[in-house]
Every structure is written in structure tokens, then in C-alpha cells.
């Protein structure tokens, strides 16, 4: 008894005289913690015994020198505690262990106590989104979601973000309510945060997240939340889906869209002034004509004042020639073509003859064979193109323009008869020979005849078609040197330009012959007078001989 009293006295004195700071040890929830006695600065040789307790009277265990530790029957610790080098070891730390533990050391002359505060922490769970909505309406407060994080100590903090910008309660558009609940059995905290939000149009595609913050862990973010934002239609838009420009016969599709969400399921279309309600956003005009040109509209079914319009122009192009198909005209006649163009815009007109481009509308004051051909009128405008054609045929009876003779090989002579006419004429020669026909172009054709004359002869070339015929003759000699063309033919060869020039040349020749004949008669008469008087003219006989030779040569040709 005396010994126990002494110990009690010593303990009381020690408590009164000792001033020591409270040490804190931190442990993770569920782990094993070792709580040191006086930070491990206890010398075993000096210790009579060590006792661990909690709070005021909660004895845990006692260990005497050179003896095993004795664990109390405290239901909270009898199966979870042990001692190691005077340190208290507790397994499966729980929130109930968050208290002050005291290590009491009894030495020979003193009793020492070392209190230690045990702090327990637990990281919260990942944030969980509950009570999620999917749709927000502009101007209407909507509870979007709840963010929940469980099993923490201390309790986790939750912050809401929109597009990575933190949201703060403002009493108007944003209201955040946070609750912390402590589990009675585990002592752990659950934090729940509810976001009530009033959407604006700019919140379309906005990303909302909640974040849990805790002193013992990194911040944890929820998955992004994207909400559908509903708002009424303020305006509609009408557009032409089909690619223009449009021509008659095309299909034209119109599409009406609204800026509201959700968009309307039906629209009113106004076609040629007639209202048509369509359970779709599109309307197609089929096989449009020029009468479909005009303004088209669409509107909401329940609000016709919200309307949009678009103009549509149907391009058209009509081309009419004064004559088409095959046109047959006589040589020398006139022809004037006209083209009538009706179009929705400004057309461009061009002409071609075959592959050759013409500079203007075909107009003929005096038709020639070269005017024959296929003429094409091309009119284009705004993606439209129309073509009209006609074939001009110029006809005329045959006219021999030239008949000549050339030296061939050996004793042969080649006669060439050049003629103009359409339809193409046939040829007939007055003698037999090897006949060759040239290609016909612009009403011109040349026939060649190769002969071997046995003597002097006259050859005729006759050309004819359904409109008439023409004939021309030429004198041909059997002499090899006979390469001279008939003078009349020679005149014809170089007088194709005009008939008037031929007449003038022939007139001049006749005048020369008349003068020569008159001179000859005069000289003859003068010579006769000289004979009568016995006078004699020098050279008169030679002049008469030359004149006779000239006449003879003309006859041979």
C-alpha cells in the first residue's frame, strides 16, 4: 500500500510540475499506425513500466520491465493493439481512433506522461454525377445535376465549372447548394453539391464539370456535361439548295431553316402566292418554266410574321431563224437572213459557216457558188446555248469559163475545159480521148481531154446540167510546135473577171482589123494608080506578101 501511495504521489507531482507540448501523429484511414512514446526517447534500463491509455480512463495496455505486455479488455482495442519499443501499434485505424493517446512512463524516481494526438485522414471518392437533366431552357432556372463525393475526412470541397471557369452563386442565374453528411458508423463525410442554372443562348455546347478538392489528394474532375439548350425561333432563313442558274425543265429545291431549338418540324411555303404547309424543311419545284420566275417565301406555321424570302429566276432562250433547213437559190439572186432572239438576259450571238467563224449575220446581195454551205447560228446566255442551222445551195446553168490546149507527152495534146455551174455538169467532147475530171469546188470544175491529133481539127467541149448547157470550140493542129492557144480562148483565160472586159478586147481587135483592111485597100488602089502612070513603089510587093501570110496564119489557128 505504501508503494502504491508513493507512486500516486509522484504522478501527481509530475503532472503539476511537467509542461510538455502536445504531439500530433497522422494516419491514413484503415492503415496501421505506430505512435511513439516521447518520440522514441525512452531509455529501457530506467523504465519500471510503461502504460498506454486514451482519453481519461481508457486503459489500453501495460508493460513491465522484462515482462510481456498486458492488453486490457477494452473492446475498441483488445484485438488491434500491440507495443513495440514502448510505441503503441494500432491496426485498421478508424475515425474512432482520432483522439489523444497518452504514454505514461514510470521510472525509479519519477512518473512521466507523453500525450500524442492521432489525426485520421481519408481521400474522398471520385465525383459522381446524379440527378442529371438533359435540357435547359433559356431564361428558366433548371436544376442541372448533383455532384457527390463520399468517404472523406476531412470532408471534400466541390466546385462547379463552366468551360473551365468556376461558377459562384450569384443569387440570380447561378445557385449552388452544398451539403456535408457524416456517416454515423464510419465517421466519414459525404459532400453533395447541387447546381441550379439559368441558361442563355451562349450556353449552346458549353461544357459543365464538377471538381472535388481535398488537402490530401490532387483535384478530381467529373466527366464534362453538355446540355441541350432550348430557345424559341426568332427568325427563319430561306435558301435555294439546287445549284443555279436555272433553265426551263430543271427542278429547284428550297430549304427553310429556323434559329430556334428544337427546330420546327413543319413550315409554310408560299408558291406563286399560294400557301402550302409542308411537314419538312424543303420544298421542290419540278420542271420549272419561265412563269416560275418570282419571289418565294417561307414562315413558321404558328407565326406567319416570322418569314423569309428568296428570288428565283428561270433563264430561257428562244432562237428563231427566218429560214431553216435547205435553201435553194439561183446564181446572182439576193438573200438576207434574220434571227429573232427572246431571252431572260443579254444573249451573245455568233455565226459559222462550216468551221469558219463569220463576223456578222449572213447577207447576200448577189449570190455566188462559193456562198453555198451550211451556216450555223449560235446563241448563248447564262449557261444556255441554242443552235440553229440552214444549208444554202446556189444553183446555175453551166458556163464554160476557159478552153485551152497544152502540150502533152510525145505527140499528145491536153485540152482543158473549165466550167462553172451547180448542180455539177456533165461534159461531152466532140472527139474521143482520155477524159479526166477534176474535183468540183464552189461550182467550179475542170475537164481534161488527152488526144493524139492526126491533122488539123476543131474540138468542141459541151457541159450541161438540168438548168442548161454551154459549148465552146478550139482548133488543134497535129504539129508538135502547136502549143499556142486559140487567141479567143487566151482572151477568155485572162478575162474571167467581167464580160464587159471581153467585149472591149473583141471590139479593139475588130477595129484593128478594119484599119488594116482599109490600109490594104488604100495601098492596093495607090499601087494600081502608079502602074498606070508607070511609077513604082518600093516595098509594096513585100507588104502585100506579108499581109497575105498574116491572113493565112490566122486561118490555121
From TrEMBL:
Ig-like domain mapped to chain residues: 30-113, 127-228, 232-313, 398-477
Pfam family, one: C2-set_2
Topology with respect to the bilayer: Single-pass type I membrane protein
Record-level GO BP terms: adaptive immune response; cell adhesion
GO cellular component, one term: dendrite
Chain segments annotated as transmembrane: 499-522
Keywords recorded for this protein, A-Z: Adaptive immunity, Cell adhesion, Cell membrane, Cell projection, Disulfide bond, Glycoprotein, Immunity, Immunoglobulin domain, Membrane, Repeat, Signal, Transmembrane, Transmembrane helix
SUPFAM superfamilies to which the protein is assigned, alphabetical: Immunoglobulin
Keyword presence, Transmembrane helix: yes
Compartmental location: Cell membrane; Cell projection, Axon; Cell projection, Dendrite
InterPro entries the record matches: CD80_C2-set, Ig-like_dom, Ig-like_dom_sf, Ig-like_fold, Ig/MHC_CS, Ig_sub, Ig_sub2, Ig_V-set
Extent of the signal sequence: 1-21
Region spans: Disordered: 533-557
Protein name according to UniProt: CD166 antigen homolog A-like
UniProt organism field: Sinocyclocheilus rhinocerous
